[in-house]
Structure formats: structure tokens, C-alpha cells
Amino acid sequence: MQTSSPLEPVQVQIHLAERSYSISIGAGLLGNVSTYQQLPPANTALIVSNTKVAPLYAAQLQEALQARYSNVLLTTLPDGETYKDWPTLQLIFDALLSHGCDRKTVLFALGGGVVGDMTGFAAASYMRGVPFVQVPTTLLAQVDSSVGGKTAINHPLGKNMIGAFYQPQLVICDLDVLQTLPTRELSAGLAEIIKYGPIADMNFLDWIETSLDVLLAREPAALAHAIQRSCEIKAWVVGQDERETGIRAILNFGHTFGHAIESGLGYGQWLHGEGVGCGMVMAAHLSQRLGLVEKSFVERLRQLVARAGLPVKAPILSAQDNAGRYLELMRVDKKSEAGEIRFVLIDGPGRAVVRAAPDALVREVIDACCA
Amino acid sequence: MQTSSPLEPVQVQIHLAERSYSISIGAGLLGNVSTYQQLPPANTALIVSNTKVAPLYAAQLQEALQARYSNVLLTTLPDGETYKDWPTLQLIFDALLSHGCDRKTVLFALGGGVVGDMTGFAAASYMRGVPFVQVPTTLLAQVDSSVGGKTAINHPLGKNMIGAFYQPQLVICDLDVLQTLPTRELSAGLAEIIKYGPIADMNFLDWIETSLDVLLAREPAALAHAIQRSCEIKAWVVGQDERETGIRAILNFGHTFGHAIESGLGYGQWLHGEGVGCGMVMAAHLSQRLGLVEKSFVERLRQLVARAGLPVKAPILSAQDNAGRYLELMRVDKKSEAGEIRFVLIDGPGRAVVRAAPDALVREVIDACCA
User: What is the pLDDT at residue B289?
Assistant: First the structure.
């Protein structure tokens, strides 16, 4: 690919039964008035952001939206996964109702995955559904929450337990915002990008291996390609199974172990992408122990995850019965059925499968990966 | 119609884009194992009820469900519209998560409209959607929440502001439960039944006028017909406009004034159906003042509403500026757009229209109806 040519915005079309929308990927989109010209007419727009992102980009977005909406409101939430809860969600409803926002009000999610998930669920639920636009400001959110319409908040007993499938009107992936992203969050985004290799496209995995240095250097054209290809693969999977009754579950590769880590350490200790990075290595290990892939494949994935700046050694979650604690946490995962953990495993390079595994084998993998 | 013949259960089919389901109307359905035989397989069922209904019917339902589900759980909520809020909804999520309920768990709403709305919203949101069954135990819930998939909770600043469109798998209208219904709630249910006359079917209004005494005497065949015809009309309207972007709004005849009364007096003072009963008379008045219907039509409706045991005189909501208070409350209604109140009016007998009206005229109607 040519990384030196000027970047034209790329559009990825998401085709879903209910409705379609597009993802715009490019530089300088967020503050550009023309980015928003296809949106449905309304009097009011509410930008939802957080204390970290709002000071950086809210004014720019607000100005661009003022060309289209007579009232542009801003609600700033506290930052972090610990605030992905009902009391914080309530702040969005309070803002909407105290300003008398009607059913046509458009919500704009300006921030990472937490802001996107909460704004999406608020949009799904406010008056039983108002339009919303995703403006993801992290690499992870750009590749992950852009496609699929999953919105949710956490419950004290489990992550993402309360939510809705709800599609945005438009997703804007502005490459400029990635330049200010902390390195740790860049790596977290790369975890979700790497994921698409093992589960669906080994050519893409080859490309990521080759391009990892320019990706880490935040070269816009490389980032644009990584985001585009990730969104395309995700759209292809989601298009076959919008409500996750079957194949869509493969997108959770690395997430079963990853969620256990995130939840076991307490939300906010590891980033979601860090949990997924380490979780992919663990799931690959489990796949190998089940005879589905070679040891060399596990090693290749482990090296790439490590090069991306992600943890590959799993944390100890309990001094007494570490593997038991992992198993306990994984059993409350949404993919579990009747207490049986459903693992997303690699069934040969580029192909994923969802299946159960014997507890003894899972314990071995946990012991090996925590050592 | 023959009111003396033995009652066969009646099925009303609801056809919607996403999926279809049926409403069963008959005597003795709730405790009958065969009522539930078409439901999707699952290990666990959670019955959600309230402190008033659970002692009457939960054991019966639980026993019938035990033939089909290995775990049948029960969550009992406090009774009343004041508890249609987030903390009470949370009790359902707590029950689901503390019992490790998975995505196949079926929720059963056993109670009136509040239990139905909350259980429906919990089902829509738990793990982004689990199946649910409505077992409405009030006449109002049988004709109102059976069709349409509206679920919601209240927000301190407005009624039904947070919710989802979410369809049940099955609705069971057991006529036996209506025999224990307090008279005031029977009347409240009749309000929603009467509604279908003016907005859609004057023959049905004739039938209600003729049958009101047997309806008030809770004659099962008459109740079955009233429920069936109400559900059919509602299904016909909702089928054209599932998400209430147009014609569906006519189902809110009487609700704009009614909600103002409910909310202005404080939820729980007037029953929802009482607000709707009085609200229909007010909306008919407004229609007449706009030249849409004759005075005789308003009087006919007023008499029927009064005969049904419903209030026809509107309450004073403010000693200072009563009409102003009504207007203020109606402006936060979900149907409002940019602060303009959208009234459902009668545009000739059997035909409804949604439109705005001059404040001065609305004030006249409020003054006349409160006097």
C-alpha cells in the first residue's frame, strides 16, 4: 500500500436487516461540517463525552454541529470503566429531560468504548429510541464499537450485562484523534485488530506483522487500512448474525479469558484490549491443547501480541485457587449456557469455532499462562 | 353473541416485521401446562410479579411452568406505579445475575401494566435481550400491553421515558383472573377498551354501549370479545407502525391529558385508565372546539365513560394557574416535538388525527373540564 499519498476518507458500508449506515475513516473528519450533512434533521444535538476527551475535542465537534442543529448540548461524564454504570447513565437521561429533548434529538458519543456503549444504550432507551452517532476517539473503539450495535452498561455482578442491540446512524473514525492517544491505549486497540487475523483472515495477520512498526508509529494510511479491514471483517460476521445467536460469537476470541482478567482484577486495572490481547494467547493455548492448532501458531500469536505492547502473561487472580477463580468468573460470561463456558477457539489458522472444553484442560492453560 | 356457550380459548395473531406471536384469551389458561408448550426450550424461567398479585397466582403459574423448566424462580416487586423505577428494575437484574441466568432464560410478567412494562424492559436489556411472556392480570394490561411491545420505566422528570420496543413470545389473557380484580381497576381497563371505538370502530363503540352492564358484571364471553376486538384493532394499528413514527400515535387518544393528570397529581393517585377515561373526554371536547366533531358525540362519549365508572371531571392541578400547569406537563410528553404538544383528536366518529392546537383553546377545554 502507498503510505505517502494524501488520504481520501474511506467509507465502509454496514448492511443490516433493519437499516444500513456507513463508517467514515479519514483525517480531520470530526470538525468538518460536511461530515454530518446526511444526518436526519433535528433541532437538538447532545454530545456525550468524558472528562478526558471533552477538553480535547468537544469544542471542535460542537462548532461543526452548530452549522446543523440550533441547540448543541454537552454532557461530560466521569472517565473510566468503573463509571459504566446506571448512576452515570442517568446523567445522560437527566440532561435530555432537563433540556426537554424530544424523539428527534441526535446523540453524539465522543470518546472511547465506555462513552460509546453508554451513549448507545441511552439512545436506545431514551423515549424507546433516538438517533445516535459514534465518534470514537480510541483505536479500540474505532475498530470495535463502530460495527455491531452492541451497547451496554455493567452490573455489579457482571460486565455489559444490561444493554441493547442498537445501530448508529453514522460512525466517524477521525485518524487525527489517534495522534493524542496514550501508547497503552494504542496497543489496546491493536489487540482487537490482531484478533481478526486468527479468526478470519491470515493475509491480514501477515500484513499486521509486516506493518506493526508503522502502526505503532501511528502512520495514518496504515491505521486507516487496519481500521477499514477490521470493520469489513466485523461487518461480514455481524451481517450474518446481528443478534449473536451463532457465528457472531467468534468476535469474542480472547474475550472469555480477557473478561475474567478485567473483572477479577477489578475493572479499570487492565484495559479491555490488554485483557483481550492476553486472552487471545490463552485461547490459542487452549486450542493447541485440544489439538486444533500447532504450537508454532500459538507462539507466532504470542510474539505479535507482545510486540504490540500488550501483556502475554496472565495475572494471578487468587492466591488460593487461581484457576478456580478464572473458571468461576468465566461461568458468568454471557456466552455461557447452563453454566458451561463457551470458548472461542482457533480451529486452524484463520478459522474460529465456539465450543466447550474440559475444566482440567482449562486449568492447565491458566496455570501455564500465569507462570 | 352467545354468552352462555362454553368458552373456547381465542387466539389473536400479531404479525410484526421482526417476529410474530399470539395472544391467547380464555378461562383457566394461566395454570394449564399446555398453554406454554410452544415456548422455546430453556432451563430456567423467572416469574416477575408484585406483592399484590403473587399471593393470588404465582403458585399456580409456578406449578404449570415446572412441567417445562427445571428451575422456576420468582421475584416479587413492590406494588404500584411509584415503583416503576430503576431501583426496582434492578431487583430483576439482581435476581437474574445472582441465579446465573443465561440468555435463554424466559421471563414471565405476572401482574398489571407496571409489572409488564418493567419485566419487558428487563427482558429487552438483560444480556441485550432474553425471551419473555406476558401474563397480564388486569383488564387494562390485557388490552393494552398485550400488543405493541412498548416497555419502559419512569424517570423522575417523566413517565415511560426510558424503555424499549420489545415483543413478547406469547401473551396469556386469563379471564379467570379478572374475577378478583377490584372494581376500580375493571373500570380502568374499560377506558382503554372504549378508546378503540372513537379512534377506529364505531360498531365496536355501539357494542360496548349495549354490553356495558354485562362487562361490568364480568361476564366471561363479553370480556373475551372486548379483549379480542381491542387487541385486533391495536394489532392492526401497530402492524402499520411498530415504532410509532406515524399512525400508531392515535392509540394515545386520551393519553396526553391523562398523563398530565397522572403526573400532576403524583403517580398512583389516579389509575392510568382513569386518566385515560377523563383524558378522552377532554380530547373529545378539544376536537369539538376545533370543529372536528359534534357536541352530541362528546356527550355520548362522556356518558359512556361515566357509566363505566370512570371520572369525567378533570382535577385541579394548580391553584395558581391550573391550565398553565396542564400545558407545562403536556409539553414534556414524548409525542411533543420542539415543545409543541401533539394531541390525538377525533376527526369525525371512528377516525383519529394527530395535530397541534392553539394554547388558548386548550386552556378553554381544561377550564371547562375542571369545572
Answer: 96
B166–A contact, CB cutoff 8 A: no
Q: Quick check: B162 contacting A, CB < 8 Å?
A: yes
Among A143, A164, A180, residue at a domain's last position: A180
- Give pLDDT tens digits for A262-286: 989 987 799 999 999 999 999 999 9
pLDDT of B15 over the 90 cut: no
Active site residue ranges of A:
128, 150, 192, 234, 244, 248, 252, 255, 259, 272
What is the pLDDT, as a whole number, of residue B143? 95
User: B316-345 burial, b if ≥16 CB within 10 A, otherwise e?
Assistant: ebeeeebbebbbebbebbbbbeeeebbbbb
Q: Are residues B300 and B340 in the same domain?
A: yes
Using the predicted structure, report yes or no on whether residue A93 has a pLDDT greater than 80. Answer: yes
Q: How far apart are the first and last CA of chain A?
A: 40
Domain for residue B1, yes or no? Answer: no
With CB atoms and an 8 Å threshold, state whether A162 touches B97. Answer: no
Domain limit, last residue, from B180, B202, B229: B180
B150 and B267 in a single domain? The answer is no
Asked whether the beta carbons of residue B331 and residue A100 sit closer than 8 angstroms, the reply is yes
CATH number at A80 reads 3.40.50.1970
- The yes-or-no verdict on residue A6 having pLDDT over 60 is no
- ipTM over cut 0.85: yes
Decide if A202 is inside a domain.
yes
Answer whether A338 sits within 8 Å of B102, measured CB to CB: yes
B90 CB within 8 Å of a chain A CB: yes
Tell me the C-alpha distance between A254 and B110, whole Å: 40
* Residue A86, in any domain of the structure: yes
For an interface test with B, which of A106, A162, A332, A334 has the most B Cβ atoms less than 10 Å from its Cβ?
A162
Chain segment B94-153, per-residue pLDDT in tens: 999 999 999 999 999 999 999 999 999 999 999 999 999 999 999 999 998 888 899 999
Note whether B116 and B153 are same-domain residues. Answer: yes
DSSP B244: -
How many distinct structural domains can be found in chain B? 2
Cβ within 8 Å, pair A103-B129: no
Residues B169 and B257 in one domain: no
B192 and B148 belong to one structural domain: no
Name the closest residue on chain A to residue B244, using Cα atoms.
Answer: A128
Residue A266, Cβ neighbours under 10 Å: how many? 10
Percentage, residues of chain B above pLDDT 70: 97
Closest CA to B255 of B231, B273, B234, B236: B273
User: What CATH number is associated with residue B212?
Assistant: 1.20.1090.10
Q: How confident is the model at residue A17 (pLDDT cuts 50, 70, 90)?
A: low
**Are B243 and A129 a contacting pair at CB < 8 A?**
yes
Residue A175 sits in the same domain as residue A296: no
- Evaluate whether A201 touches A315 at the Cβ level (below 8 Å): no
Give B-chain residues touching A243 at CB under 8 angstroms.
128-129
pLDDT at A61 over 70: yes
| Nearest by CB: A157 against B98, B152, B244 | B98
pLDDT tens per residue, range B142-199: 998 888 899 999 998 888 999 999 999 999 999 999 999 999 999 999 999 999 999 9
Which range marks the domain in which residue B110 is found?
10-180
Q: What is the DSSP string of B128-162?
A: T---EEEEE-SHHHHHHTTSS-EEEEEETTEEEEE
What is the distance between the alpha carbons of residues B272 and A201, in angstroms, rounded to a whole number? 56
CB contact under 8 A, A97 and B158: yes
Q: Contact at 8 Å (CB) between B3 and B221?
A: yes
Residue among A93, A163, A164 whose CB faces B161 most closely:
A93
Residue B203 sits in the same domain as residue B347: yes
Q: Does B163 touch chain A (CB under 8 A)?
A: yes
Same domain, A229 and A132: no
Residue B1 has pLDDT above 50, yes or no: no
- CA-nearest of A346, A362, A355 to A284 is A346
